[in-house]
Amino acid sequence: MTFLISLRNLFIRLLPELSKFGVVGLFGLLVDVGGFNLLRFAGGEGPLYDQPLTAKVISTSAATVVAWLGNRYWTFRDSRRAAAHHEFLLFVWWCSIGSAMAVACLAISHYLLHLTSPLADNISGNVIGLALGTTFRFWAYRTHVFSEHKPAEVEPDVDEAAFTPAPDQLKPATDRQLSPRMPAE
């Protein structure tokens, strides 16, 4: 029972962030699914009709940029990194892992199970794969990408050499300095 209460409290605490993440994700989903279907099926047979994995990688890449902008400037705006390029590279890295989950689901369905219809491709890549990838991405973004400490919390770099006395400044300790302080007589 305590576990369920803790889980409920965690969910309530994360709900605003999860909601924003979901809205940004919906925009990314529209770019991803829309782009995938345009590339594969626009006008019957799209420009990448025979290359479903390439179509998925391209649509996911476009969705990644949309998602990074939304998450950086809205969902995680209070914890974004000062170096946007570093944050973007981390975002792309973790997003790529999440996207690989969707591509793997599509590859298994399309090539291993030979389920090649538009419906099968969309279910495997854009429902199952997307659900797995999205769950992973929320954890990864929150934990690794948008986790910059506030400036007040950052430890300053300390040059240890500045605090180490030179050898000629060291003097041997006397017996009086090494023993516990004795009361004056």
Give a quick precis of the structure.
This protein has 185 residues and is mainly α. It has 5 helices and no strands.
Written account of the structure:
With 185 residues, the chain is mostly helical. It has one domain (14-148). The protein is built from five helices and no strands. Helix 1 (2-41) packs across helix 2 and helix 2 (52-75) runs antiparallel to helix 3 (84-112). The N and C termini lie far apart (66 Å). Mean pLDDT is 82; it is low at 150-158.
How many domains make up the coordinates? Answer: 1
Given the structure, what is the number of helices?
Answer: 5
| Helix-strand topology string | HHHHH
Could you tell me the mean pLDDT?
82
**What share of the residues lie within helices?**
55-70%
How would you classify the helix and strand content by structural class? mainly alpha
Low-confidence spans: pLDDT under 50, at least 5 residues? Answer: 150-158
Number of strands: 0
Distance between the termini: 66 Å
